[in-house]
Amino acid sequence: MSKLISAAEKNKALILEALDYIWKNPETGYREVKTSAYLEEKFEALGYELVKAGDIPGFYCVVDTGRPGPEILVLGEMDSLLCPTHPEADPETGAVHCCGHAAQSAALFGIAAALKTEGALDGLCGKIRLCAVPAEELIEIEYRSKLIAEGKIHYFGGKSEFLRRGYFDGVDIALMVHTTQGKEASLRDGSVGCMAKRIIYKGKSAHAGGSPWNGCNALYAATQGLSAINAIRETFAEQDIIRVHPIVTKGGGAVNAIPDEVILESYVRGKTFKAIEEANKKVNRALCGAALSLGANVEIIDSPGYAPLKNSEGMKQLVLDAAKEIDLPCTYTPVVGSGSTDMGDLSGILPVVHPYCPGAEGISHGDNYRIANPELACVTSAKWQLKMLELLLKDGAVRAKEIKESFVPEFASAKDYLDYMDSLFSSGDRIVYREDGVAEVKGCSL
Known about the structure:
Layout lengths: L2 H8 L1 H13 L8 H13 L5 E2 L6 E6 L6 E7 L3 E2 L12 E2 L4 H15 L11 E7 L7 H9 L8 H7 L8 E3 L2 E4 L3 E7 L1 E10 L15 H14 L11 E2 L2 E4 L10 E10 L2 H22 L2 E10 L2 E2 L2 H13 L4 E8 L6 H4 L4 E2 L2 E6 L8 E2 L2 H20 L4 H9 L7 H9 L8 E3 L5 E3 L5
Parallel strand pairs: 3-6, 3-7, 7-17, 8-18, 9-16
Antiparallel strand pairs: 1-2, 2-6, 4-5, 9-15, 10-13, 10-14, 11-13, 12-13, 18-19, 20-21
Helix pairs in contact: 1-4, 1-11, 2-4, 2-11, 4-11, 7-8, 9-11
């Protein structure tokens, strides 16, 4: 057993203590104040000098082997979800870690502790950047839109926000292990990306019983919009893995008043950027058509969500080799998953990998999700990632160099990627009703 793997085992109690704290203090994206402060204290106690985001949660530190070589980024996500019916949800906020991020953060701390063990870096070269990152779950779009309006963030996802801030400058390769159910680790080719949408139907209020004809029912327009989206689903090609799943976040104010404002949130997910953009055009046409049918208006705010994730070929093999060396069963399935992650935001510019470590049980994002085997979910995850680092950076980092040299990025630089993401922003009322009775629809191309 290597020194790194032994060091993770020796720090088992500290790792599980971290899991317990983070699980009991769930916070959603860009609100992970307690979680970030806890991890910062733990990392600083180990002797790390941190670069803190400051105005939002999160931080990173760099471990230098003292020998030249590539820099590997290791990420741990801090945010929770909202599931008020979960028995362990925060009674005030409804937040709960029903996606496994508590285990990921605990594993990141375990990696940090192991790397501080005497002799742990012997035989390795280059640098290791450890990053506690906020806001992977793309929820609370209204709250995050407010943060954008206030200038506190520019992107909904924590990784793209950290990328914009330069926190990943100089990184050559990135890896992150997500928690999953069962007893075996797993790996796929990648996952779909997504566009985030906020849709505001605008009508006119009136007495719902006495004079409804004087109003314009925004709820009916929204309902028509949802029906129209359902009507176009069969136009989505199966190979594009399109998913559209809106929710209503505001449905009216009083039962005896015609709703004058109804708000929806949704994603448009897809396998490629092209597929997402084409599907989003169809969705916007459907939403506008519904507003026109009742004489309402609709404001559509489109924001870049997450890029499609593409695990690099060299990193996929690394994952399987590292799992074998620590006797962790790992299944590779050559498919693209229909969930989304902001790890995709890095995969267009860097070789990345995003495998899954077991230890949880229940339904992901559901009210019965829990970490059933903390040692497997946290300690084994830390060992697996440490073994990946060892394989990448030993022998003069020959493997890391080969992976980097063979990688063909979709975007030439982080700036090019972020410029593309910025081009996806779109907002405003989509219909202009003229005095001559003609309606003009804006921003909805055929």
